[in-house]
Design brief:
The structure holds 2 protein chains of 2 kinds.
Chain A lengths: L2 E4 L1 H9 L6 E3 L12 E6 L12 E6 L3 H10 L5 E5 L8 E9 L2 E7 L14 E5 L4 H9 L3 H13 L2 E12 L2 E4 L2 E6 L14 E2 L6 H10 L5 E6 L6 E6 L1 H13 L8 E6 L4 H17 L6 E8 L5 H21 L3 E7 L3 H14 L3 E5 L7 H11 L1
Helix pairs in contact in A: 5-7, 7-8, 8-9
Chain B lengths: L2 H6 L5 E4 L3 H13 L7 E5 L5 E6 L2 E8 L7 H4 L4 E4 L6 H11 L5 E4 L6 H11 L4 E3 L5 E4 L3 E3 L7 H6 L8 E5 L2 H13 L4 E6 L10 H10 L5 E7 L4 H10 L7 E6 L26 H10 L8 H8 L15 H4 L21 E2 L2 E2 L6 H11 L5 H14 L7 H11 L4 H9 L10 H14 L3 H11 L18 H7 L9 H14 L9 H15 L5 H9 L2 H23 L26
Parallel strand pairs in B: 1-2, 1-5, 2-4, 5-6, 6-7, 10-11, 10-12, 12-13
Antiparallel strand pairs in B: 3-4, 8-9, 8-11, 14-15
Classes of the chains: A alpha+beta, B alpha/beta.
C-alpha cells in the first residue's frame, strides 16, 4: 500500500548477494565485531543526512568500531552497518537511481561525482526501462556495466522494489561498488517475497506506543486503520474516516490557522467491525486524555461512507468513550461529530443519545451538514 | 462509441469475483430502483457455493455462483461486460488477467482491493490500459446513473442511492482518487440541484490502471457531460496530467478541482496519509504546487473545501426529470432462514373419484405391493386406489413443517441423506404427521361406544386430550382443505361409512366452537380407510384393533413423506446451503426468572 524503507544492509545483501562483505549489528543479534582491516560504520535506520549528524565514520581500524557504535547507542540508535573501507576519490563518485513509474522503470544517472542532483538536474541523464531490451542502450550510453544493470533490474522486480538509489556509485576496473544504497520497497509485495520482511523495514522516526498498537491491529483486519501522533499535547484529536475525507478535515484546521493544535492524524475506513473500531478509538482517546493542553475537543468526522456501517462503527466508538467518559468530563472535553453513510440515522441517534447522557455533547451532524462542520465547531470551542 | 454511452445503451452485465454481500446487494438495489427487469449481476465467482441468496426488490433471488471464470457456462458469456473484482490484493492480478482472457470482449473492471503491489498494477497497465476501462486498484468503482453501478460507489444503503438521485442522468462528471470523497461529492452535486453524468473513482494507489487522463478524455467525449468535478490529494503528479490536457486543448469542458493536503505544511517532515500515493516525494507534489499549476491554466481550484462546494452551484446542468426511486419496497424485507423448492403442487389436487366411479388414473403397482407387504394380504382395488391417493397427496406439504425443517437443518450441517432423513422422520409424532393412528383409534372408539359426537367431544375435552384428526393451522370453515375434499369422495364408493360420518359429526361440534377445528388429512385418511377396510376388504373389529396396535396407519404418512424429506434434503445439497444458525431476532431469550440475591 505504501513505499517503505528497507535497511541498507538488507538492500545491499539483496543487490549483491554473497559477494557483499558488510555486517549488520542489531539489538537482538549476537554480533561479532571484526578484528582486522579498516571499516566504515553507519547507523542503518533510514536516517537522512547521516554525515552531517555524525552517524557515519569512515576509514576506522577494527578496534575503534565498538566505540562509535556505543556512542550511537547512547543517542538511542539500535541498528548499524559495518563495511570494509573502500578508498576512492570524490571524482569517481557517480549517482544512480531506479524508480517504478507508470510506463516502466525510470533510471537516473549522473557521471560526475559528488553532485547534489536536486541542485543540478541538468547533469542528470534520464532513461526508461520499458522492456529488458532497453538495458543494452543504457549500458552503452552510461558506461555502467550491463551485467550490473541486469542484476539491478532483476532484483528490483523480483523483490518488489519501488525505488533504489545508489549515491555514491563507484566503478573501478569494470567493478561496481555501492558505497551507499537506499531502497524503498512496496509493502504490498511482502506476501510475494521472502528475501525481506517486516524486520528489515526501518523507520527514521520513533513510534508512539499508540501508533504501534494501531499498526498491530491493522495487520489483523482487511479494514484500513491508521494513526500518527503529531503533537502529544495537542488540543484537537481526531477519529476520522476515509483517506480523502480525513485530509479535507485536517486541511480545514490548517486553513483556519489551527494546524498547531492538531494532536493526531489518522483514519479508519473499509468497514471495520465494532470491535476493531473500539480498539482503534481507545488508542486515540488515551493519547487525548494524556495531552496537557488546557482545552481539548474530540472530532469524530468523515465523508459520506460508501459501505462502512455507521451503526457498528459508532457503537465501537461509544464502547471506547464509555470507559473514559468520567475522565473526559473532568477534563472538560466535548465531542463534535459529522458523518454520513449506511445506517446514518441510527448511528447519529445512538451517538447523540450517549453524548447527551454523558454530558460530552458538542454537536452531532449528518450528511446534510458540510463535511468540515465538526472541525469548525471544535476549533471555535477550544479557542473560546 | 464512448464507453459511457455503451453502458447507457445496456452493456451492463457484471461478473463478480470474490464476495462482499453489502456491495453486491447495493448493486441489485440500484438495478431494481432503476427499473430493470433483471439484475445486472450475471453471477459470482467465489469459493465453494453454487448459489447465493440476495434480494431483487422485495423478493429473494438466487444468484448463481461459479468455481472459476473457466467454469462459467456459455449461456452467460454473452451478457458479461464487466468484472467487479472484490478479491484481496494478493489475488487481483491473476484473476483479472484470467478474466480478460476468458471474456475478451468485456469492457472493463473495478479492482476493489487496496494492497495490490505496484508491480502488478503497472503490469495491468501494460496489458489493458488502452483497451479496457479499469477503475482501481482501490477506490469504490464507477457509476452511470440508472445504468451501471460497479462497486460500492454511491453508497450501499438504498436511502443513499435515493438521496443522491442515482437514477437520473445529469451533466456533471465526478472523478476522484478517494473513494469516500467520491461519494461525498456525488451527494454534494445532488444537493446543489445538479445531477451526475457518470463518476469514476480511480483509486488512491500510485498506479491506477485507467489513468486520470483517460477518464477526463471520457468525460470530454461523453455527450451528456458538460462539467467535471475533480477531487485530488497531495502526492503523485496526476494533476499535471490535467494541466497538460487543458494546455493542449484536448480537455475543453470546465473543470472544478479541490486538491487536499494543505495540512502537510503543518508538519516538519512530509507525512504518509491514508492513500498509498498521498505522500509528497518532490516539491511539485504538494497540494499547493498542484493547485497553483491548475489555476495557471484556468482550472477553478478553490482554496477551501466550503468554497469548492459553493462553486458546484455555478456548474451548468441540462434540464432533467428525476426518476423517483421508491425504496418503500426495500425497507421491510426480511431474509429467509431456509430455502427449498415447492416439491409438489397442492393447488391442483387430482380427482380420484367421479360420478361414483374411480377415475381413470395411472395405476401404480407400488401401492398394491406396499399394502400387501404391510397387511400380509392382497388389498382390494378400492383400498389400493385410496392408499395410492394418500401416497401422492402426502409426499410433501411444503418446507415449513417441522419434519422438513429438521431435514433441511441436518442437511445444512453437512450430514448425509440417511442422517438428514432420519432427523426428519424422528420428528413425526402426535403433533406432526403421526396422528393417523390416533385418529383411527378415536373414530373406532367413537363408533363402537354409540355415544353422540357431542358427548364424545365433551369427554375428550374433560380428559384434556388433543382430538387427533381435527384442526388445521391454515385451513378453516370456508377455506376447505382440497385434499380432504378429494379423499372424502371415496365414501361415494361405499354403501355405509360410519367412521366417516362420525368424524364429520365431530367436526360439526368442534367447528361450532372454532372454525379452524376442521377435519384434517389425518382424520379423513383414518375414517375413510376404516370404512373401506370394513366394507370392501372385510376387516373385523379385532383385525382393525390389531392394525392400530401395530401402528399400520402411521406408515401411510411415513412412506410418502420419506420421499418429500429426501427431496428437501437434495434441494439443500443442490444449492449448497451452508450451516444453519437461527438469527438472533428470531430467538427470544427469556430471563431465568430467578431473582439474583445480593449479599448485604
Amino acid at each position: 500500500m505504501s513505499r517503505v524503507k528497507l535497511s541498507e544492509y538488507r538492500a545491499k545483501k539483496i543487490l549483491l548477494g554473497d559477494s557483499y562483505a558488510g555486517l549488520s549489528i542489531r539489538p537482538e543479534g549476537d554480533d561479532v565485531m571484526p578484528t582486522s582491516g579498516t571499516w566504515v560504520a553507519k547507523v542503518d535506520q533510514g536516517v537522512k543526512k547521516r554525515f552531517k549528524q555524525g552517524l557515519i565514520v569512515v576509514d576506522k581500524p577494527a578496534a575503534e568500531l565498538a566505540a562509535s557504535v556505543e556512542s550511537w547507542k547512547g543517542r538511542g540508535f539500535t541498528q548499524f552497518i559495518l563495511e570494509p573501507f573502500f578508498p576512492h576519490s570524490p571524482q569517481e563518485e557517480q549517482y544512480f537511481s531506479m524508480e517504478r513509474v507508470r510506463e516502466g522503470i525510470r533510471v537516473l544517472h549522473a557521471k560526475d561525482g559528488g553532485v547534489d542532483i536536486e541542485a543540478h538536474p541538468e547533469m542528470v541523464k534520464q532513461y526508461l526501462i520499458a522492456s529488458t531490451t532497453d538495458i543494452s542502450m543504457i549500458a552503452s550510453t552510461s558506461q555502467i556495466p550491463q551485467a550490473f544493470l541486469e542484476r539491478c533490474l532483476e532484483m528490483f522486480d523480483k523483490n518488489f522494489f519501488a525505488f533504489l538509489e545508489i549515491n555514491p556509485l563507484v566503478i573501478k576496473n569494470g567493478e561496481v561498488h555501492l558505497l551507499d544504497a537506499a531502497v524503498l520497497v512496496d509493502d504490498a509485495g511482502a506476501f510475494f517475497t521472502d528475501t525481506w520482511n517486516n524486520a528489515d523495514l526501518v523507520e527514521s522516526k520513533l513510534k508512539h506506543p499508540a501508533e504501534a498498537q494501531v499498526e498491530a491491529l491493522a495487520a489483523t483486519t482487511p479494514a484500513s486503520l491508521k494513526l500518527s501522533i503529531i503533537n502529544p499535547d495537542g488540543a484537537l484529536f481526531f477519529l476520522l474516516s476515509g483517506g480523502g475525507g480525513s485530509i479535507v478535515i485536517a486541511d480545514e484546521a490548517q486553513l483556519l490557522g489551527a494546524g498547531a493544535l492538531i494532536g493526531n492524524y489518522g483514519e479508519y475506513s473499509g468497514g471495520p467491525t465494532r470491535q476493531e473500531t473500539y480498539l482503534y478509538a481507545k488508542e486515540v482517546l488515551g493519547v487525548m486524555l494524556a495531552s496537557k493542553a488546557k482545552k481539548k475537543a474530540l472530532i469524530i468526522a468523515g465523508g459520506i461512507a460508501n459501505f462502512t456501517d455507521m451503526k457498528s462503527t459508532f457503537s465501537g466508538i461509544i464502547d471506547a468513550l464509555r470507559e473514559v467518559a468520567p475522565d473526559m468530563r473532568a477534563a472538560g472535553i466535548k465531542v463534535f461529530v459529522r458523518r454520513g453513510g449506511p445506517n446514518e440515522t441510527v448511528g447519529l441517534a445512538i451517538m447523540r443519545e450517549f453524548l447527551t447522557k454523558e454530558n460530552l455533547l458538542g454537536a452531532v451532524d449528518g450528511s446534510d451538514a458540510i463535511i468540515t462542520k465538526a472541525v469548525d465547531d471544535a476549533i471555535t470551542f477550544v479557542r473560546v | 462509441m464512448n464507453i459511457i454511452e455503451e453502458i447507457r445503451k445496456g452493456k451492463t452485465g457484471i461478473l463478480i469475483a470474490g464476495n462482499h454481500e453489502k456491495i453486491i446487494q447495493s448493486i441489485l438495489d440500484f438495478d431494481f430502483l432503476s427499473g430493470k427487469s433483471e439484475p445486472s449481476i450475471v453471477g459470482i465467482v467465489s469459493g465453494n457455493r453454487k448459489v447465493q441468496k440476495f434480494f431483487f426488490g422485495p423478493r429473494e433471488i438466487l444468484l448463481p455462483c461459479f468455481k472459476s471464470f473457466e467454469s462459467v457456462p456459455d449461456v452467460y458469456t454473452e451478457r458479461v461486460s464487466w468484472l467487479l473484482n472484490l478479491q484481496s490484493g494478493r489475488r487481483v492480478f491473476d484473476s483479472t488477467v484470467v478474466f480478460f482472457k476468458i471474456f475478451p470482449h468485456a469492457l472493463g473492471a473495478h479492482l476493489f482491493a487496496e494492497n495490490v503491489p505496484e508491480r502488478h498494477a503497472t503490469e495491468l497497465i501494460r496489458l489493458f490500459d488502452k483497451e479496457k476501462l479499469i477503475a482501481g486498484p482501490s477506490g469504490v468503482g464507477m457509476i452511470v446513473p440508472g445504468s451501471l453501478k460497479l462497486g460500492a460507489i454511491g453508497g450501499t444503503d438504498p436511502a443513499q442511492l435515493t438521496a443522491s438521485h442515482l437514477g437520473t442522468t445529469g451533466s456533471v462528471a465526478i472523478v476522484s482518487t478517494s473513494g469516500g470523497m467520491t461519494n461525498e461529492l456525488i451527494r454534494a452535486v445532488a444537493s446543489a440541484g445538479k445531477r451526475l453524468s457518470f463518476s469514476i473513482s480511480i483509486g488512491g494507489d500510485r498506479f491506477p490502471v485507467t489513468s486520470l487522463t483517460d477518464v477526463l478524455l471520457l468525460a470530454e467525449s461523453d455527450p451528456s457531460t458538460s462539467a467535471i468535478v475533480y477531487f485530488g490529494e497531495l502526492g503523485g503528479s496526476d494533476e499535471y496530467e490535467i494541466v497538460e490536457l487543458v494546455k493542449s486543448k484536448r480537455l475543453t469542458k470546465p473543470v472544478l478541482a479541490y486538491i487536499a493536503g494543505i495540512i502537510d505544511e503543518a508538519f516538519d517532515e512530509h507525512m504518509q496519509f491514508g492513500h498509498a500515493k498521498a505522500l509528497v516525494a518532490r516539491q511539485d507534489e504538494s497540494a499547493r504546487a498542484k493547485r497553483d499549476a491548475l489555476r495557471e491554466v484556468g482550472v477553478d481550484a478553490p482554496e477551501t473545501f466550503p468554497q469548492f462546494l459553493e462553486r458546484i452551484h455555478a456548474l451548468s446542468q441540462a434540464d432533467f426529470h428525476d426518476r423517483v426511486f421508491d425504496i418503500g419496497a426495500l425497507m421491510e424485507r426480511h431474509k429467509s432462514i431456509l430455502s427449498t423448492r415447492n416439491i409438489i403442487d397442492l393447488e391442483e389436487v387430482p380427482i380420484y373419484v367421479e360420478n361414483g366411479k374411480l377415475t381413470d388414473r395411472p395405476r401404480n403397482a407400488f401401492a398394491a405391493a406396499a399394502l400387501e407387504a404391510l397387511l400380509d394380504r392382497e388389498a382390494s382395488e378400492t383400498t389400493t386406489a385410496f392408499v395410492e391417493a394418500i401416497f401422492e397427496l402426502l409426499i410433501d406439504h411444503g418446507g415449513n413443517v417441522s419434519g422438513a425443517v429438521n431435514t433441511m437443518i441436518t442437511a445444512r450441517a453437512g450430514r448425509d441423506m440417511v442422517s438428514s432423513l432420519a432427523s426428519g422422520l424422528l420428528t413425526i409424532g402426535p403433533r406432526f404427521g403421526g396422528a393417523i393412528n390416533e385418529a383411527a383409534r378415536a373414530w373406532i372408539r367413537g363408533v363402537s361406544s354409540g355415544d353422540s359426537a357431542a358427548t364424545f367431544v365433551e369427554a375428550r375435552a374433560k380428559e384434556g386430550v388433543l382430538l387427533s384428526g381435527i384442526g388445521h393451522r391454515k385451513y378453516r370453515v370456508g377455506i376447505p382443505d382440497p385434499r380432504v375434499e378429494a379423499l372424502a369422495q371415496f365414501t361415494t364408493l361405499l354403501k355405509k361409512h360410519p367412521h366417516y360420518d362420525f368424524a364429520r359429526a365431530v367436526e360439526q361440534v368442534t367447528t361450532s366452537k372454532n372454525g379452524s377445528l376442521i377435519l384434517n388429512v389425518d382424520g379423513i385418511v383414518a375414517s375413510v380407510l376404516l370404512d373401506i377396510l370394513v366394507e370392501v376388504d372385510g376387516f373385523s373389529p379385532a383385525e382393525l384393533q390389531e392394525l392400530l396396535d401395530i401402528e399400520f396407519f402411521n406408515a401411510l404418512f411415513v412412506i410418502p413423506r420419506t420421499v418429500g424429506f429426501i427431496a428437501h434434503f437434495m434441494e439443500q445439497k443442490r444449492n449448497d446451503e451452508g450451516l444453519f444458525r437461527l438469527p438472533d431476532e428470531l430467538l427470544f431469550v427469556r430471563d431465568s426468572g430467578k431473582e439474583k440475591k445480593h449479599r448485604k
